[in-house]
Amino acid sequence: MNTNLEYAVYMAVIYLRISRDDGDKDESDSITNQRDLILNFLKSHPEIQIYKIRIDDGYSGVNFDRPGIIQTMEDIRSGYANCIIVKDLSRFGRNHIEVGRYTEKIFPRLGVRFIAVNDNVDSIRNDLPGNDIIVPFKNLINDSYSRDISIKIRSNLEAKRQRGEFVGAFTPYGYRKADDNKNKLVVDEEAADVVRYIFSLYLQGYSAYKIAERLNQDDVLTPLDYKWQHGCALYSYWRKRQKGQWDHTNILRILSNPTYMGTLIQGRYTTPNYKVKKIVQKDRSKWCEKVNNHEPIIAPTIFRCIQKALKNDTLTGRSAEKLHSLAGVLKCGDCGANMSRKTVPSGGKKYIYYVCRAHKNNRKVCTPHNVSAEVLEKTILDVLNQQIRMAQDMEALLEQVQEIQYKQKIAARWERQIADKEEQIQKYQKLRIELYEDLKMEILSWEEYEELKAVFEQRIQEAECALSILLKEAEHIGEGKTDFCEWINEFKRYGSLQQLTREVVICLIDEVLVYEKKEGEKYPRIEVRFNYREETEMTENLLEELKLLKPGEAGVHG
Fold first, then answer.
1. Buried b (16+ CB within 10 A) or exposed e, 503-535
2. How many CA atoms lie within 13 A of 464 on its CB side?
3. Is the pLDDT assigned to residue 380 strictly greater than 80?
4. 515 and 334 Cβ atoms separated by less than 8 Å
5. How far apart are CA 480 and CA 224, in angstroms?
6. What ranges make up the beta strands (E) of 120-202?
7. What is the pLDDT of residues 418-460, one digit of tens each?
8. R_g over Cα of the chain
């Protein structure tokens, strides 16, 4: 490691580094301690003068993309310095390959004197016995130490996630860390009121764009500005204004964040290993998801209904203040296309109708399926009130049923669904294996093999994801965390409805199908499919088994 170059005076860069990610100890490895030790060392080396002190505070030693290291090398290559001094080899780096590349190749080629004080390393001294063996060995030990610390940190974080502890640096908007426990989420009421307001506006039919406009008009602080105002050191490289503005992406991010219904999802991203810092997304089945983990801001039933509504195809004009009540829910019963709303002026009045969008766009496709908005909405309202009365009747009957009977019925249903998904996964895995046999026998071409393999792998992944959700639900049932009358409570809370609102539609209705009028019919057939169909049917079956309800007596349940 001898540079074979000696100078009368050396211009030195003192390099200091500390990182808790490497397991550095606050006392012995502090920046102040490193500086004092090196300055004391220089008292006995008058040939070395200090050019600069470079510091990397909070940077891991496993990679060399550190500001202090980059600046140090620029000092060397610019000719301002020809000596680097560190407290020990681990301060320079914990990647034994990279450290060896610098000390054995780069520094000798650039004529740089390298000194690691505590390790007794000085590249211009030939009289230090064993350095050729000891230095690489120490580099390897430092590297191994960093790897062990990385494993311990990963394991510790995963254990905290499994316990439902929050391990993020910054809490989601609407929450803060508890005063007595930094891993516990508690509701931040000031921001939570804004979150509730956003969900309330969406339930009223306002789009994400319109909600953002309203928040900007009301001068509500954006999540980033709110955190800044409350002393949080959170920064954004994309900030363009002194004061932030709400936009539709902020709104959609809040509307789709399951944290607000009390579910904590962590561990979505990781890095391949302790040396490679590239962030990659983990498979959905490997995320850590904890249901009912903390106090929700939004009721889980409402949150889930909004997630379904967000996926619906809802179109509205720019001038429209909000969506009509049936947007994205009303569909043609024959072709499945959404129904479009149109206004027809006649005799000085305006009449509103719904028509099949597919037919409206192409007259050769489907049929008009014309239906008056007044007739349609009255029919839906009547059916909704029937469903609400049926839920109330079922609740009265369920009071006669023991909770254990209900639990057993639900558990049996989940077991059947879990078994079906497991069977489905095995079927697709078998088909994927058989594909390779077909390829070997030249029944399939390589292109066909790759295409079909991708299809089966996608289906396996979807089935595994569904299975993971089912297993979590089954676990909550076993722990008694599931409200078995949740669907009844949802219908009951609206009471006797006088008008059809967007909120009622989102929370209670899955879809409404309109079929073409048959000859002789005054109105088309309208089918209302409600949310909680499985729960309703299961409850009805249980009551029939217990002779508390006659078959078909429950009435319409979509």
1. bbbbbbbebbbbbbbeeeeeebebebebbbeeb
2. 14
3. yes
4. yes
5. 38
6. 121-122, 175-178, 181-187
7. 888 889 889 888 888 888 888 888 888 888 888 888 888 888 8
8. 33
